[in-house]
Amino acid sequence: xxxxxxxxxxxxxxxxxxxxxxxxxxxxxxxxxxxxxxxxxxxxxxxxxxxxxxxxxxxxxxxxxxxxxxxxxxxxxxxxxxxxxxxxxxxxxxxxxxxxxxxxxxxxxxxxxxxxxxxxxxxxxxxxxxxxxxxxxxxxxxxxxxxxxxxxxxxxxxxxxxxxxxxxxxxxxxxxxxxxxxxxxxxxxxxxxxxxxxxxxxxxxxxxxxxxxxxxxxxxxxxxxxxxxxxxxxxxxxxxxxxxxxxxxxxxxxxxxxxxxxxxxxxxxxxxxxxxxxxxxxxxxxxxxxxxxxxxxxxxxxxxxxxxxxxxxxxxxxxxxxxxxxxxxxxxxxxxxxxxxxxxxxxxxxxxxxxxxxxxxxxxxxxxxxxxxxxxxxxxxxxxxxxxxxxxxxxxxxxxxx
Length: 402
Hints:
The protein is built from 12 helices and 16 strands.
């Protein structure tokens, strides 16, 4: 996840008590920064800390600044990193640079927080656009709450409201959080105002079919990666909440029927991953007939030996699937890690999903040169199109989240 959702319950507790918390949020990173934009740390009035902005590197400095902000009520934008004279003292030894926005959060400064929390809990897409820098200090801390078709709050001028609301909706559709730069009154060209847009698209889904011990381990991995995990099996004796405590949902239904119904309900998108662990033809062949014909899905993998895989392919061809459709299937599932236990196998499956998402090759980093972090070509194309629309003023196609 890597954003305020990690600390939302702690922040809400302070907010609902009518008190003020100091919240530090990473808004921009350069080079090998340890945490992504949106990563947040909350300092409660009693001094307790939740979350992280740097994995430990600059927490002490942000903690001190959060206490200052709680005391004087003035938000601040600070840069930490190798370019600072105090970089060594701060401890950002990875060589990266972080811009962190630290603000007081209370019922007064952020009255919409509970609404945002409700949207996140109900899997409704929402973005929070906050002014983090402005030539007029009175603007700093103002925010808009933006949905796909709505914008609540005020930045202080109709022009700025319209520009930021439109761009925030575009970033929300792209599943992206970043800093946008405007003229002081929201002019698309110029400088004087910076707005951090934190997009909270619903968590991507991981659908695990087959209520076996490997599924329990994979559900745990999926949760760790930020997926909303559903385990589905037609056998009620196996598909129980007690056997899958980390899953968000446990469903008793024939897998192919459940998947078809989810597609019909609009619950499947390009980020959804489907893991078929049944390795039983009566379950997995009808299920894969549905899955491999879905117009949008991020990953489809099926467990089984190579012999099972060949038999499955033959059955799917008999069912009418084309070679192009069958090429979407990752089977046998997972990367070659030498995995044996359910937990190790779950790691190998998760590794293949991550590699497919970001274009990784699964090789040891010690054998490689160049950048460590990848960006998927699909996401790059999507963001290039969005950036072009901002420069030219053309319409941005509000497509589903990646």
